[in-house]
């Protein structure tokens, strides 16, 4: 049900997606969704929680790079690679996030708290180290740098995926985003 809900919300947005449509795609009775989640908003929150859970392993792998062995440049490069790859690994994520983050309110706040802030908390120490070592291309805030990385990843994912991509094309897109976005951020890339 959560996969069908994510697919519906990412395709038509929260307001354009109905529980009946989600139930039909999931192959279940709409009453089951109502019984299990209680409301469309509760289902939506469960979808966000599932996304956060799916991203948690990548986030933890980024956190393991804090103060680890290897140069700051190597650890920052690896952290950004993991960040970009994790965003590519959930096909609906870029559309879902772009829709929800553009609408102020309770849903936006929930996504920021459950998805963005934990990721930001994982990446910022690495980007702060990079800035201190003069590795960032722009001497701006690490927070803005991370937002720029997210934008540089999300828009190509949105545009390319609307055409439909094979698994091979998805893997190539992920590889290209890593190879093309890192030099935008790191002076040494």
UniProtKB/TrEMBL annotation:
Record-linked PANTHER family: HTH-TYPE TRANSCRIPTIONAL REGULATOR BETI, HTH-TYPE TRANSCRIPTIONAL REGULATOR RUTR
Higher taxonomy: Bacteria, Pseudomonadati, Pseudomonadota, Alphaproteobacteria, Acetobacterales
Single GO MF descriptor: DNA-binding transcription factor activity
Record keywords, A-Z: DNA-binding, Transcription, Transcription regulation
DNA-binding region: 18-37
Protein name: TetR/AcrR family transcriptional regulator
Matching InterPro entries: Homeodomain-like_sf, HTH-type_TetR-like_transc_reg, HTH_TetR, Tet_transcr_reg_TetR-rel_C_sf
Gene3D superfamilies in UniProt: Tetracycline Repressor, domain 2
Any one Pfam family match given in the protein's UniProt record, by short name: TetR_N
Domain named HTH tetR-type: residues: 1-55
PROSITE patterns in the cross-refs: HTH_TETR_2
Domain of life: Bacteria
SUPFAM superfamilies: Homeodomain-like, Tetracyclin repressor-like, C-terminal domain
Keyword Transcription belongs to the record: yes
Record keyword Transcription regulation present: yes
């Amino acid at each position: 049900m959560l996969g069908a809900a994510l697919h519906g919300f990412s395709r038509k947005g929260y307001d354009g997606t109905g529980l009946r449509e989600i139930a039909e795609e999931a192959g279940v009775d709409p009453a089951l969704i109502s019984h299990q989640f209680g409301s469309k908003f509760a289902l939506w929150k469960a979808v966000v929680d599932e996304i956060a859970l799916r991203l948690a392993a990548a986030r933890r792998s980024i956190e393991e790079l804090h103060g680890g062995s290897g140069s700051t440049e190597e650890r920052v490069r690896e952290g950004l690679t993991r960040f970009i790859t994790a965003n590519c690994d959930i096909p609906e994520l870029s559309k879902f996030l772009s829709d929800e983050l553009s609408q102020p309110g309770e849903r936006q706040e929930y996504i920021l708290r459950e998805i963005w802030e934990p990721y930001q908390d994982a990446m910022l120490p690495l980007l702060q180290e990079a800035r201190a070592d003069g590795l960032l291309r722009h001497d701006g805030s690490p927070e803005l740098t991370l937002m720029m990385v997210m934008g540089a990843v999300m828009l190509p994912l949105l545009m390319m995926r609307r055409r439909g991509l094979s698994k091979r094309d998805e893997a190539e897109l992920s590889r290209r985003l890593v190879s093309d976005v890192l030099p935008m951020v790191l002076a040494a890339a």
